[in-house]
Structure formats: C-alpha cells, structure tokens
C-alpha cells in the first residue's frame, strides 16, 4: 500500500527495456548520442514545435532551476505560488542557480489567479533600481495540491505575465497527469497558451530519473547548455537519459502511465469518500488526494504498513477520532488490489 | 575501434542486472532506500572507514564540485594541477558551487610536486584580508594525462597541505584504474595518506552514471546533504543510483573492470610502440595513451571509423608524415580484436 | 521644504569638521588608521560591550547584507517583515551576499510579533533537507513605517528566534531615532535583549556615508572582514569613514541629531493633525509620518517646491479632494521655519 | 617619510573644499543630485565621449568588479596579468561579482603582450561547452609594477581581444598617473584604442574615496545600475561622491596631482640610484619604485619611521648587507623635504 509519492514506485518495464536496448556498443558522450536525436524529434513532434530546444537532465529540481536561471537575471524576482515546489521543496536551489534572485509568492492559494498575479507583478515598481526587478512567472501543472490549470487559465496568466514582459515557465513534473486529465494537446497547454519554457517530467511517471527541458524559443539553447554543464548536470553517458525518455515517449507510454495514475487516484478517492469520518480536502483531478482521517484509522493503516505522508501529528498520542491530514499519491503502478486492501484496513 | 573515452562504451551487464533487480516494489525516495544502506556498508568496508560519510551523485563533476564546495569557503582558493578536470573541463562549475572561489594552478606539469605545492600555498599570504585565502588541495588520481601518484607521493602532498591547514580532495573519476595499477588498498591511497574527501568514480568504469562522494571525517555529512539538494543533485528515485553502485562494488567488479581497461591500455600501447613513426608521449600507467602518429595514419584510421580525440589538426590538409597528437582511452569493454584491428589499420 | 528622506539633507558641521581634522599626514589604510581605534573604543563604550567586533562601511545596505551574510548559510532563510528594507529596497543584495539565501516574510504587518515569528520559523521543518533551513531573524528598528519595538518586544522576539537556534540581526539605519525616542540604553535595545549583530546607522542621521556593523560576539570578526573585502566595501582611505563616525559619536552628537529629527517629526505631525482632511496613518514615534492629504493640497505643496514621497497618484489628474498617501521624513537639519511654511501652504 | 602607498596620504584641499561646498541644503539621493550631472558632463568632456555612461562608486575594487561583472557571464573567464589587482588583491571579489567566473592569467610578466594574449584566449576552445568560455580582457594602466602600456600597445591588445569577441576593461586606479606620464589624451588611451570600460581612479590621487566607472558604449548603463545597487554600492547621499569627483576633475586637478606624484617618484628614484648597494628593479615610469636595499639600510629607515612595503624579510635578522626588496610609492602630497630626509637616512 504505497501512496507516499509517485517517486517511490518502480520504473515501467518498457523504460527498463529501452535502457537495456541502449546498452551496447559505442555512443558519443555528453548529448551527442544518436538516441538524443530521436528524443528531440519525438518531443518536437509531440509538442508540434519543430524549432524547440530540447534537453535532458536527471532531476526535476535541475529541470526547474536550470530553466528558470536561463529566464531570470539575478536582480529579478520569480513569481510563483506559495506552495510551489521551487519555493517549498528545493532548498534554495532556484536562488542558487539564479545568482540570488528572489521568489515572490503570489496570493495565498494553491493556484495563481490573474488578478493576484497582476497585483504581485505591479507590487514591484518597474524601473526602480532599489527593488527586485520583475522576472518570470513559474506555474506548476498539476499543482502540488493536485489541481489543474485549464488551457484558458494558463492563457490568461501568460497574458498578464507577457503584458509586463515577464516570461513564463511551467513546472511540469506531473505534466503527463495534466494532459491525461484535461484531454487537450501538449501544445495547447504550453506554447499556444504562452508558456516559454517547460520542465517535462518523466521520473514520477515511469522513468528512473529523467526530465526534459523544452524552450519553445530556441534562442535560449546555448545558454542553457552552458548552465547545464556549469551546474554539473550534463551526463557523460547521456545515452541512458535519452533511452529512458525515448522509451517513455514511444507509443504514447507517457500518457498511458499518467492516465493509469489518475485513474488509480480517482478510484482511491471514490473509496475514501465512502469511509467513515474521511474528508477529502482537494478536488481530485489527477493522482493526488489530500484528506483527513481519524487518528485511529491512521494507526491501523500504519500498523498494516501503508506508506503515505502524514502532515499532522502525532500519530501515536491523542484522541482516536481526531482528524489528521495526509497526502496520498498513486503512481502508474498502483493496482486495484492495493487500493482495495487500503480501503479495507481503513474501514477497520 | 572506440578509444574516444571511457564514457563512450556500454555499462557492465552486472550493473544493468543490479538495476533490473532494484526495479520492483516500493522504495523510500531521496536516499532512504535500503540499497543505499548496503552501498554505504560496502564502501565503508572497502575503505576500512566505518565512520565515513558516503553519498551518491550521478556525474563526476557533481561529485567534485559538491565535495570541494563543502571544503572551501568562497574567499578561498583551491590548489590544483593546470590540467585538472576541475580547471579545464567543468565550465566554472567549481567556482559556481564554491560561491566564487578561485583556482590556483600549481606548477606547470601534469602531476603536482610537494615543492610546487609549497610555493603555491605560500604564494598567498596567510591572514592577509586582501588576497584569496588558502583552501583545499585537489589531486586527480589517475591524472588527466593518465599518470599515477604513488602512496608516498600522496602522503607527501597531503603533509604539505595539512601543514598549512588545507584539506585534501581527490578527484577519483579513475580511482579504480589507480588502485588496480598500484596494487595498494583504497585506504592506503586515501585517508591513510591524508586525503579528506574522495570523488569515487563509477561512470567511466562500467556504470551508467553514478559516483560516490566519501568524506572520511563525517562532520561534513549534513552540509554535504544540503549542498547536494541545493545543487539539484539529490535523486528522488535514488534506488537507481544505489543499485548501480551496489552492482559495481559487488564481488570486486570495480577492480576487475579497471584492471581490464588498464590491460587493454597496455596492450594498445605495446602495439603502438611497434608502429612506424608513432611516439608515445606519456608513461602508460592506466588506460590512457597520448601519442603522435603521422597524419596519413590518422587519415586511414578515421576512414576506417576509429573514434578517438585528435588534439592536433587539421586532419585533412598538410604533409602526410606530419606527427599529430591524439589521445586513446580504453574502457572495460575494449577487446583484443578491436585493438588488433586498430593496429592493423595503423600499420597501413 | 524637504521631507523626501533623511538622506537628502546635509551632513552635520561637526562631522564635516571631523573629516577635515582627519585630513593631514599619513594614516595606514584599510582600517588600520588610529581613528578607527578611537571609534572602536567609542562604540564599545556606548554599547557597554568591551569585546564587540566593530566595523565600518559606507552604505546601509552594505551593513545589512554583510552582517546577514555572516550569520546566514546559503541554504537558509532569513525571517523579516514584509516591508523590511532588505526585502523591498535592496535589489536582491541580501540574496546575492548570502549566496542565494531566501527571505521569508513574517506576518503581514509592519512589526513582527512573537506569534507570527513562531509560525514562520516552524513553517520550515527542521532538519528536512528539501526545504530552506532556518536562518536569522532580521528586525528593523525603527521600522520602515516609523514604528518602534520596545525593549520587551525585542526580548520576546529574540527569545523565539534563539529557541530555534536562529541568530538575530537588527537593521538600525535609524537606531539613533529609536534610542532617542525610547529613552533606553543602546545595550538594553540590543545585546541585553538578545540581538547578535547590529547595523548602526550614521548616514541618515548627520553623516555623509558611514554605518557601523557591530557583532556582540567577536567570533564573527575575521569572517566579516573577509566578506567586507570580498564585497569591495573595505575602504583604502578608511580614515574618512572613521572620522565621520568619530565626530558623530563624540559628545553624544548622534543622539542629539536623532532627537532633533524626532522632535521635528512630532511638530510636523502636530501641525498636520490640524490640517483639514489630513489623516495620519501611522503612530508617529520617530521622524516619519505617513498621511493622506487631498490631491489639491499635494498639488499646492508640489507647486511650492515641497519634496516628499507621494505613494499614490496621479498627482495631476482626478478629484481635488481625493486622499493621496505620502511619506514625510524629517532629518536632523529640519527647522521650524520649514515646517511652518509647509503647513501654511498645506492649509491653502 | 611615507611611501607605503598612494592611499596613505591626505586628500587634496580642493577636493575637501568641494565636499564642503556640497554640504548645504537638499539634494536628491542615489545619484540624482545635480552635482552628478556636472560630473557626468566633465567626464564625457575629458574623454571626448558624449554618449558614455558614467557612474561613481567609493572603492577601486568596486569599480573593477562591477565593471567586469557587467561585461562577463558567469561561465566565462577574464584574462588578466598574473599580478593584476583583480587577481592578487581583491579576495575573490571578481569571482563573487561575476557569479563564479574564472580568471585566466596571461603570460608571466607584469605587462600582457599580444602574443601571450592570443595564446591565452585560444587556449580555451571556442564553443566547447566543457571549458570556461572566453570573456573580457582586463588591463591595468599603470600596472601594479608601475609600468605603462603605450597607446600602440593598448591598441594591439584590444585588437587581439576584439578579434575573439572579447571586450576590454581597463583598471585605471592610477589612470591619472598614466595620462600624465604618457602625454596622450584620455580618449587615445581608452576608447580610441579599443577599451570598452574604464575604472577611473580618484582615491589614490587626491580624493577621499571615489572612482568613476565609464562605459563607452552606453547600452550597459541600466545593467550596471542594477549591479551597483545589488552590490550595495549605491550611495544614498551620493552628492558626496559627486562633489569629490567634481573637485578632482575641475581645472585639471587630477592631472596635476598625478604629475606631482610622478615627479616625486622620479626624484626619489634618482636619489636612490645614487645610494650604495641600491638596485632599482622596475622602470620608473610613474610613482612607484621597486628596489633592493641592504638590510642595514632598511633597519635605519624603519628606526627613523619610514613607512613602505618591505616584500622580503625578516628585517631584524640576517646579514646586514643582504639585499631586501621593497616597494616605494609617492602620492601627490609627497614633498621634496621628505624625499631628501629619506635619502639622507638611507645614505647612513
């Protein structure tokens, strides 16, 4: 019963096979492998963006901070949600990579609204040498709270940003989940709506460790390559990043694994809605559920070995019926049996 | 005929198998996987260092710069050889990770001598606020020119560094090759000789992409963990780094692959010594040969598809007998047939 | 009628005289001047802190960011008020000097409360490698909104910070105004209450450009010296910083100029309270008044050459009776005639 | 007998007077003072550069590193002489301000030659993502060894740099001394020869603490302003920087003080040439003399209170006739009596 994160499960067999297939003979290093040519073509095709600059790195944080650093000058501020991964979970990596740039938190909600963005941007006076200068907007799709921006919402946000000459980055660690849930095209969800750079996640969705960074305007290409190398994120045996991504993209696997994770999330949520004293706190749009369960339920689940993030505490002490908040994430490998077992135990 | 680098060949089947074995079920992320426990024990055992702090990253540059950053304050200077990887091949990554530290080049040779080190360190006046402050020594073992420091040489260099309160880092991207060639123990070559931190290479010697960083004094552990995270080098699905390293260390595989590469290097060198107009420029101690061959020979080899680094040029124009310098590297997978074919073509 | 800032007026004649007095003969450079010895003794005496490390720089931002950088590791977050100078007016200098540290805004008010501080600090999970780590608290005394922390308030805030192992910095660009208004001793307002490092302002209060940085624990001394030099803030002809500070401290001048500015502020506020349609927005505790006046009043004042910061706008267009917010600051040189004239014109 | 540095003497009375003159009434802060307008016009006039962007900072290191940071990307390397101030005397400030850029030392001499520069630049392979990228050339005029580049030499060096798309910075902490000695115009020595940015020194040559940064191409203006602010080098009471520079430039004072220092240097050198066992090591072109004197002579001079930098040692122990190297610098205030007394004592 593994709901701790979509990074605690195994890689998809097809990705493992692609890795195995890549493991013979000679390949030039540092991104000059022939597999990378294929990956570049795949991603340009999927995004209907034949000029896009496409790169691979091994971690989602690397994708985010290298993309952002390319779009940000050190005296600028990045606009993001208070709960954004770049704000909460990257140990100042964005500030480090951007040479000391600032993060300005927009609003107090999980999702950024155009009005809040407008207020945040205009909160910094344009052309005043004393203040942080206005830099990029970073959106997370799906958000850390498992919510989705619609194509229209993204368009509206990009319009606000661009009206102030701010570029737009999208943290798409769960981009596949978003596309699978929204049923739109990758292009609609990104450059057609105004997104300038995308962190396209693979790791959480069936890979071992690979993320793509896509700049829809290729003028950023060389600077990104230098930043990736300087950040120590350029792989010598790059073929093993390429192979993962190739296997992940082939035959739409990335959308199938994302859809599977979303479906599992929906099933788990459905089941939880039937649990006594369970309150689901978010709208379950992808593979993440935030919910309260009574302490006693958590105790039973933990005793049975269920793995998930308990946000409240303590687990061991206090009233048995006290509601404690937790996060549950389903990955592509989450099967019905596991969900059924979890619900059984939760029911008590 | 692949002699371009030891990062252009495949991973060892045993490492691939370890990866496959790791790919089932749940594993906590970010280094809390059970495999990492095993790897930590393996490395502490191999290095006879039961207290050592042991971490994994995916690139050699990451290992070097994160280790160095942990040992360096931003106003200090790192002492290294003019041809060190950190100086020549990391696009200012050391300066970036160390917050703007300086590199001071020691001597003009491939290997650093104690006398040159003493001169370099004392070239910066201790306690003078105006100058760079004295920071760590970084040694490369084996060097970029394929040379080895003996245990005594390392001890002598560490003694000079420590006498000036400078810690010592060793870039061991080819540490396996060094141990295999010198026939000493890993402990003798590192902490017993005075080395404080080691980048222990896996990638060039049979892995897909994994390097260990070992601090023999564990007080650096938490700072390193923060630096690794902040550098975006902490893997979520960390099990796949652990698995590689576990397979690489099991049953002494790392020493076997290194010995195989060294043996191939020696065989290739032997063969090249018999070539007309070939001059080998370095002492072939591990798996790297620097040599001049006549332009015509290079042309024949290139036409036949041989891959290696040609340092001089141009290949296509000029006297046929002009000696052009090149680098040849053998990895663990380099077989006798490949060497024989190369020599055949070189002979003309 | 100059109320734009306390940095738009002249330096005090006694400070100018001290500068003149210092301008003869030889003085060792870079802080080894004999005047600096006197300044160090003066400040240790004033603060009853015979061991304190005392340094001079030329700008308030330099004092703040060098002091903070000495107390902060790059992966940490500084806690400050949303309107703090380090957040709003230093163009990412704190982030730059701290190697990419983050600023966490505490509460939504001008002054930080212990409860808000506790929430902010515990908002970052201790020992979690993924998040920003807990770093120093930075208090501004007097605040950007012209408010004061009492000795008890500072003690309570320092207690919260220290309970979480967070050091405390005080931005005292207007420290003199605070001491003059509160009637306590400098020691009571700083180290006795728990403050670890102070930016002690001179520039706004009668000097040309000099600020002291005081560490009550001298173990930070050498690191600060290196950071000051590396930041390009170590003056070669340091005697001219020392001389200013010496003249500023001699015979309690710094308290007299601060008291004069506070008195002027109180008089201006008193007068403004009698103006029709004037609303004073802050409690006038030192030399700063935030107030709304009708647009027509602003227009008259501007036409007459009054200088002050108009926060709302536009000045020229809109209803004559619309209330527009402005900031008025009195410096030590602000005389009664100037205030009277301003009020006359405001009255219309 | 003060020959320690040109930063150990007093400021020129005319500069002090300008400071005094500036000290009345209101002036907008942060560089918007009316005096700055005058200074900008003065410098554009002196340099025959009506479009130049002109800024003031308080230290020579700030001028150098802010100018260089504006011309350098973090992955680039700056080319400079091994003895350059930016390499030897700025405690990694260039690396800090340039975000971790590298310094490549050109040749082994005090002055850079075109051939050595060509070798140094081409030593970094263009377009190779692994290496430092080629960045600006920084020349020091006059050099740290008191030598001068002729206009032709500067032109030749700039031609090499520009042929490789490298911009050129000149560290002119002693620019006045150079112009006074060479008898050319400021324009000839800078932009006409190809210099892109100049640190124009005031501090060493009669001011209290002010340096100009001049970009001959004004497109760098706004970035420089942001960098100056972010570096905490923007003065609030900026009028006092402007006033110094205004007084320094008025009526050619800067050239008179420089000429006076050069003349004093020449006189001291002449006298020293007549001393027994004195060997002058550099060509005395400006105000700096490097020479060996017997230990006994140094002992007599020190006993008599002479101040200068002794590079060898120890002073107190060893053969009386052992030659010890020292540096002697004359500033604008160095009078004949002081020189005569020094020579008297040196003669014994």
UniProtKB/TrEMBL annotation, chains A, B, C, D:
<dbReference type="InterPro" id="IPR015424">
    <property type="entry name" value="PyrdxlP-dep_Trfase"/>
</dbReference>
<dbReference type="GO" id="GO:0016829">
    <property type="term" value="F:lyase activity"/>
</dbReference>
<feature type="domain" description="Aromatic amino acid beta-eliminating lyase/threonine aldolase">
    <location>
        <begin position="3"/>
        <end position="292"/>
    </location>
</feature>
<dbReference type="GO" id="GO:0006520">
    <property type="term" value="P:amino acid metabolic process"/>
</dbReference>
<dbReference type="Pfam" id="PF01212">
    <property type="entry name" value="Beta_elim_lyase"/>
</dbReference>
<protein>
    <submittedName>
        <fullName>Low specificity L-threonine aldolase</fullName>
    </submittedName>
</protein>
<comment type="similarity">
    <text>Belongs to the threonine aldolase family.</text>
</comment>
<dbReference type="InterPro" id="IPR001597">
    <property type="entry name" value="ArAA_b-elim_lyase/Thr_aldolase"/>
</dbReference>
<dbReference type="InterPro" id="IPR015421">
    <property type="entry name" value="PyrdxlP-dep_Trfase_major"/>
</dbReference>
<dbReference type="InterPro" id="IPR015422">
    <property type="entry name" value="PyrdxlP-dep_Trfase_small"/>
</dbReference>
<keyword id="KW-0663">Pyridoxal phosphate</keyword>
<comment type="subunit">
    <text>Homotetramer.</text>
</comment>
């Amino acid at each position: 019963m593994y709901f701790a994160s979509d990074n605690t499960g195994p890689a998809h067999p097809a990705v493992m096979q692609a890795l195995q297939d890549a493991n013979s003979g000679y390949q030039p290093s540092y991104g000059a492998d022939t597999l990378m040519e294929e990956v570049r073509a795949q991603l340009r095709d999927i995004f209907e963006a034949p000029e896009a600059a496409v790169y691979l790195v091994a971690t989602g944080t690397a994708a985010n901070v290298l993309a952002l650093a390319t779009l940000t000058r050190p005296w600028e501020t990045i606009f993001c949600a208070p709960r954004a991964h770049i704000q909460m979970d990257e140990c100042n990596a964005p500030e480090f990579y951007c040479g000391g740039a600032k993060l300005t938190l927009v609003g107090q909600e999980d999702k950024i609204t155009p009005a809040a963005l407008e207020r945040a941007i205009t909160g910094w006076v344009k052309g005043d040498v004393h203040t942080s200068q206005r830099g990029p907007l970073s959106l997370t799709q799906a958000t850390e709270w498992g919510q989705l921006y619609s194509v229209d919402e993204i368009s509206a946000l990009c319009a606000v940003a661009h009206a102030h000459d701010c570029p737009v980055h999208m943290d798409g660690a769960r981009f596949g989940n978003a596309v699978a849930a929204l049923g739109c095209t990758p292009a609609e969800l990104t450059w057609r709506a105004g997104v300038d750079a995308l962190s396209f996640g693979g790791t959480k969705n069936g890979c071992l460790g690979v993320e793509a960074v896509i700049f829809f305007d290729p003028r950023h290409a060389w600077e990104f390559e230098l930043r990736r190398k300087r950040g120590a994120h350029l792989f010598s045996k790059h073929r093993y990043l390429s192979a993962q991504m190739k296997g992940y993209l082939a035959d739409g696997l990335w959308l199938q694994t994302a859809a599977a994770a979303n479906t599992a999330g929906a099933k788990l949520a459905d089941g939880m809605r039937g649990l006594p004293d369970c309150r689901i706190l978010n709208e379950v749009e992808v593979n993440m559920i935030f919910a309260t369960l009574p302490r006693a339920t958590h105790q039973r689940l933990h005793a049975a070995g269920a793995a998930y993030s308990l946000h409240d505490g303590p687990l061991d002490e206090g009233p048995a019926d006290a509601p404690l908040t937790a996060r549950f994430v389903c990955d592509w490998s989450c099967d019905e049996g596991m969900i059924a077992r979890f619900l059984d135990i939760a029911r008590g």
